[in-house]
Amino acid sequence: MRNIILVVLILCSQIFLSQNVQITGRILNNENSPVDFAEVLLLKNDSVKIRSEVTDANGLFTIDAPKDSYILQVKRFKGILYSKKIKLENNLRLNDLRIEDIKQIKEVILEKKKKLIEKKIDRTVFNVENSIFSSGADLAQVLSGTPMLSVSDNSVSIVGKSGVAVMVNDKLLNLSGTDLINYLRSLRSDDVSRVEIITTPPAKYEAQGNSGILNIILKKNTKLGWNGILSSSYIQTTYVGNANNLTLNYNSNKITSSLRLRQFERPSKAVELIDIIGTNSILSADKRKDQFKGAGANFSFDYKLNQNSNIGVIYDISKSHSDMDIFNRSIYQTNGIQDSLLTTSSEHRKPILTHSLNVYYDYKIDSLGKKLSIAGNYFSNSPDAEVNFQTIADYTPGIQKIRNLSNLDYQIVSGQADLYLPFKWGTLETGLKFTHFMNDSNIKYLSFKNDQYIMDTGRSNYFEYKENNAAAYVSVYKSLGEKWSAKAGLRYEYSTIDGYSETAGERNKNEYGRLFPSAYLEYKANENNTLSVNYSKRINRPNFTALNPFRWYSNPYSFYTGNPFLSPSYNHNVELSYLYKNRFSVTVYGQKLINGYGRITSLTQGIKEVNYKNYLTQYDAGLNASLYTNVTKWWENNTNIVSFYSESESSIPEVVPQNGVSMYYTINNTFTINKEKSVLFLLNFYHYLPNKQGNTYIGNISNLSAGFRFSLMEKKLRVNMMVEDIFRGTQSKGKIFYDEFTQFYNNYYDTRRFTLNLTYSFGNKNIKTNNKQIQLEEKNRAN
């Protein structure tokens, strides 16, 4: 064994000591400002391209190449700005190259140079601004057309895997379910540059989240001045809704700022049929009207202290209401014979106020791109919910009136420092982070007796939860010659937990530390063929609701509760990917979930309880293939097919695991109607075949959508009309298997929708918006 290790070390050392050398430099214009998106080429015989790289936002570039003589050439917008003969014998660090920048070039030229799909060593990049979603769509529509992703009315996920974390400029959104989808619909694709699909996140990112990260990067333009976008949408489901957005941006030599205002109102109808069939059965039917409305503002301000440093602040405030009016009819049976009938009408009122504050400082250490970033983050979420329900039972006269009051206060405070250190031999990233969570929950259960509401102390609770997380990481990237590159990282996270339930008199303390490795290897055979393999380990910590032992009642005989002893789950991911011409990609993946948790339904003496438990070990394997193609000059097609196998094991006998194979496919088509390409017709379809995961069987789901897009007034005004789920195929049907009963569900959430959107752009189009990347990935646990 020792000899084998020695041989491996020798081979690795030979790879790292390869004959390639590195050339680095920076491109500046006559005003000493960095020139981004400039292509730096190494040529042989004046025309044979050996290597090329594009400068980043700081004008920096790094190229690895074999020792030889070359022509170094700098191009931008198809114009040659610089050319010089060089001889590479050792690593070469060039002085700043000053060039005559080409000005007043239309943005569309740059857009044509970008690839639609790019494969980087640790992520897949979908360039939205080069796709059919470049303007006039909302962010949910953008994600629905992104390879490997699935978007429904209550979730975003990677097909064949569970849900993912969603970030905007490296800043995690504190939203899940329908709240997340509604927020994504309030953002415009006009502001989006690209979507990064990070299925195996590197060490820089929090280890939280089993199935990866979607990182949405907003556009960063280069000109000074003002601009803005005004957008308004009419939305028709069963009810009429609307969404309105205003974005104002300003940039000067020192200041980069933006103000984004949003308002939305989205009423919808929902029908939920949930039947528990066994010796003791409950047949339940919900008819519901949901109302989600609110407004918010986001302000960002960045100030350039000098050539090497800048400070900034990002503040977001949101005030929303999530309301529901529900009529429920529940039939209780024993051996198929009705025992009782309960009808319950309830009103759910949930105002939500959230604040998010991010303060940061960036310092450029040298001209090669070394950078120190320091950030402080604060987040608070204060949902106060009131639920009033009235229940009529056929076995007793009168009406039972119950009121649930919940006052919740989530707060997260964090600080972090990150170093980005490019060297001649490779790139090193390292950093530290500390996060403090606080959650105070005061839940009251009141019964109406003698003409007044009286608190039931046995069903009320005060829950206090505190958690501290400390993390450190290191990540190394290195080019291993002309075609190979590698990246490896290690993250360590240490957590202490203290949860206290006043009513139950229970205190739960826990502490644990874990290592989370990640590794990536990429082989680029040529410009058209890229092969990569990667691995990562992840953790999924329970959110605060899952840990709170209080009981939330929907009627006197049905409640759900949290589990203060719930522990995290862990996930191992491995992937093998192939990309051809940035148009066709295939990924084979495997995934193992350990100590998975979820909601478990139990039925005891007519009382329905839904609780969280750790019980699941799950193995997934699948294949994901995507193809983007121009069928004709006027027909663009995007097809994605996923096939996967899932096998589950349960550690508790009441859960009956399910195993099986499934497939999902989506076909998106865009037809250009006129020569000016100002009128487009869209026809999209996706279909989930039946599948089994955990202890759940999920039935067929399909969605056919169609619409038009118009560009008017020199593309300043864009009009979109879309009809989604034309045949109501997204009705959710399935079964959940337990040893003593089977739970059947058949739900519909008003997904047939007509949307009319108007988007107007004004001011200087080439304005720079704040694209600062701040990380507060813990926010999604505050639910």
UniProtKB/TrEMBL annotation:
GO cellular component, one term: cell outer membrane
Chief subcellular location: membrane
Annotated Pfam families: OMP_b-brl_3
UniProt xrefs under InterPro entries: Beta-barrel_TonB_sf, CarboxyPept-like_regulatory, OMP_b-brl_3
Domain Outer membrane protein beta-barrel: 364-760
Keywords: Cell outer membrane, Membrane, Receptor
Coiled coil: none
PANTHER family documented for this protein: PLUG DOMAIN-CONTAINING PROTEIN, TONB-DEPENDENT RECEPTOR-LIKE BETA-BARREL DOMAIN-CONTAINING PROTEIN
Protein name: Outer membrane receptor proteins, mostly Fe transport
Localization annotation: Cell outer membrane
